[in-house]
Amino acid sequence: MRRQLPLSLHLGAVLTLLLVAMALLSLLWTPYPAEQVRVIARLKPPSAAHWLGTDHFGRDVLSMIMVGARNSLSVGAAAVGLGLLGGVPLGLLAAGLGRWGDEVVARLGDLVFAFPAVLTAILLTAAVGAGAINVVVALALFNAAVLARVTRGAALAAWRRPFVGAALALGRGPLSVTLVHVLPNIAGIIVVQATVLFAVAIVNEAALSYLGLGIQPPSPSWGKMLGDAQTYLFTAPLQAVFPGVAIALCVMGLTMLGDGLRDWLDPRHRSSGVM
Amino acid sequence: MSTAKQRVTQRVTLAAIAGLALAAASQAALAQPRTDLVVGMALEPPHLDPTAGAAGAIKEVTYANLFEPLLRVDGDGKLVPGLAERWTVSEDGLTYRFTLRSNAKFHDGTAADSADVKFTLDRARAGDSVNAQKAYFAPIAKVETPDPQTVVVTLSRPDGLFLFHMASGDAAIVAPESAPTNKQKPVGTGPFKFDRWVAGDRVVLVRNPDYDGVKPKLDRVTFRFVSDPAAQVAALKAGDIDAFTLFSTYEALPEFRNDPKFAVTVGSTEGETVLSTNNARKPFDDVRVRRAMAHAIDRKTLIEGVLYGNGAAIGSHFPPHREGYVDLTGLYPYDPAKAKALLAEAGYPNGFDTTLRLPPPPYARRGGELVAAMLAEVGIRAKIEPVEWAAWLEKTFKGKDYDLTMIAHTEPLDIDIYARPDYYFNYRSERFNALNEELNRSQDAAKRNALYGEQQKILAEDAVNGFLFMLPSVTVQKAGLTGMWVNRPVQANDVTNAAWK
Fold first, then answer.
1. For residue A272, is pLDDT > 50?
2. Read out DSSP for chain A?
3. SS3 label, residue B288
């Protein structure tokens, strides 16, 4: 049976693919080296030579946006990847163990949730210094807590379903039931959540870099570009537009992808009743 | 119909007349020059006692306005009378006799006499002193008060800069009764007295009616604190701030220059901005590496990129506007090829990795980014590490645990820091130290200037730090305001001569 793919999935996938393509391209080619400074050619509007103009040090904005995409995606991927590695097993464990195991995981989650991700990151960078690694660690911690909670809820529901009871009755152990029956049935939910967290991580990285706590120069970052552009709002307002648009499109693409995936994967949204 | 029309016309005429009358009234009000002033500053002071803190913002509110030292530094950098109206120095340079103004009073009404001066100086040099510049008071052996108007200070060793130091905000004269509460409620002897402090927003000073010296023209001065560059520009344009001093959003200056409602002045501070280098740490202990860095830095581009051209290049640790300056900016011309050759000679043909730590001010954050890009051109890969002030002071300045950092040294005439054995540059030169001792023994201006010249040459030859530029003193003010300082010979916003045309 073929199902209609939701429109948001299409749009989200196209935007995200474009972004990934741009990031990958920056590994091989950028119009100019993204770190090349030329003060005499600073704050130039878009032109044939510099498609998106130059920044306050005369660096090519397009090249910086391209490399910035790579940096943003890397931080997002690392933060979500680590979050998955930490959060999913914890969530499964909580659901499988029940009682006190569940309690411990839930309280640990509460502890992390008590501090917003950006605040955790600021605390961490204040303690050990600014930098991309620390941002990844802080965001991963937050992501792990979110994913653990989501995984636990979905897994508990899965545990109550008849086929899990049947598998247990047939003598399967809890570990095997978790891996063979529970995990595949909740994978969709986790993927959707991870996609949304990816978008959140990119916004948070941009926020921290804007504050000067994230990715450090000379490596370009959308957030830092936005922060630098702030003092030029009166003199060169375009400086703020391009990194701003890049962040907006990137987050929009990932969010729509997540939404579309959820609509597509969620059984309640399935069109025909084969169940 | 026609009567209704007439009535309308009448009403319109009446309204027009009323409008004109109002306009005339406000014109009359405008003709009177204003007597209040709002000064904008980027940073808020942590407290208001200049004798107990290093933060420049304290002096930028209180110096000359609220507190007076024995001597003052004026806008041209010259020493002028402060609380003392005259002073003499003995032949051997060890005895200083100050005569105080006879009617000087503190804002609480008590007399400001020699006992207060003795209290101030003894407090500043005591073991438990919290003065940020204790070294200024270290040469004092004893303070005597033969009569209420006379103070005699005896030094244990000659100090060529003693008068200069006694004119700093750190040497402001305070009274024993109010000294403990000066941080929140400052009581000085100046032409303005403290009115109120709205934390996070403003400090208000009002004219001191009992001031015994030249009375200021303004009767109310408000210092407003705006740290965000975009908000600074907006506040000036909206007219909320009359004059913004040490304005650092240089890219907005052309706009203000083209607007007849504003006047822009660009002068110099005493802030030698340097790429501080840990001379004790490898590979910076090798003079060839330090010279290579000097050749790798293009000062012209740096000044253009960071200050939009509003600053003078320096080749040593001395400001061009001061007597005794020697132009050494040509010693290491920008030459990346030569820099690479020097690095290869020192054993680093492929360059090396290092860390460049940057405190918060924009000149450091932005300048550091440019310097790192320039160093990268010759193979020196500097990782940028932005830090907050507290961390910078703790680790870099006090702990001396750093490779490179970038900072403006804003104390006036501070070339002697290179003679301090425990200073964070970790620099040591017997020749330089010998010259410094000779300077302390010399009172003759011509000889002092020659000695300063020698010191500058030694620092440049040793390429101790990357000598970059003088931090400019930019003031954006409303047209019609006069009497604001163009240069910044000491940390101060002296508004005692400010007036509206």
1. no
2. ---PPPHHHHHHHHHHHHHHHHHHHHHH--SS-TT---GGGTTPPP-SSSTT-B-TTS-BHHHHHHHHHHHHHHHHHHHHHHHHHHHHHHHHHHHHH-HHHHHHHHHHHHHHHTS-HHHHHHHHHHHH--SHHHHHHHHHHHHHHHHHHHHHHHHHHHHTSHHHHHHHHTT--HHHHIIIIIHHHHHHHHHHHHHHHHHHHHHHHHHHHHTT-SSPTTS--HHHHHHHHGGGTTT-THHHHHHHHHHHHHHHHHHHHHHHHHHHH-GGG-SS---
3. helix
- The alpha carbon torsion through A78, A84, A89, A95 (nearest 10 deg) reads 150
For A48-86, write each residue's pLDDT tens digit: 999 999 998 999 999 999 999 999 999 999 999 999 999
* A251/chain B closest Cα distance in angstroms: 27
- The pLDDT tens digits of the residues spanning B112-158 come to 999 999 999 999 999 999 998 998 999 999 999 999 999 999 999 98
Chain A, residues 197-236, CB within 8 A of chain B, namely 212-213, 216-218, 230-235
Given a contact cutoff of 8 angstroms between Cβ atoms, the answer to whether B159 and B436 are in contact is no
Give the least confident one: A114-118, A267-271, B50-54: A267-271
With the CA atoms of A133, A135, A137 and A139 taken in that order, what torsion angle do they form, in degrees rounded to the nearest 10?
A: -150
Instruction: List CB contacts (< 8 A) between A130 and chain B.
Output: 385-386
What distance in Å separates residue A113's CA from the closest CA in chain B? 27
Q: Record the pTM.
A: 0.80
Q: B-side interface with A, Cβ within 8 Å?
A: 229-230, 233, 249, 251-252, 255, 301, 304-305, 362, 365-366, 369-370, 372-374, 376, 383-388
Please provide the distance, in angstroms rounded to a whole number, between the alpha carbons at the two ends of chain A: 13
User: pLDDT tens-digit profile of B322-368?
Assistant: 889 999 999 999 999 999 999 999 999 999 999 999 998 889 999 99
Which residue of chain B is at minimal alpha-carbon distance from A228? Answer: B366
Is residue B27 pLDDT above 80, yes or no? no
Crossing angle for the helix pair A222-229 and A61-97, to the nearest 10 degrees: 130
CA dihedral B445, B446, B450, B455 (to 10 degrees): 0
Amino acid present at B50: P
**In b/e form, how buried is each residue of A228-239, taking b as 16+ CB within 10 angstroms?**
bbebbeebbeeb
Distance, CA of B436 to CA of B93 (rounded, Å): 16
CA distance B200 to B369: 30
- The complex scores an ipTM of 0.75
Structure tokens at B231: 């908000």
Please tell me the distance from the alpha carbon of residue B69 to that of residue B172, in angstroms, as a whole number: 4
Report CA torsion sign: B293, B296, B297, B300. Answer: positive
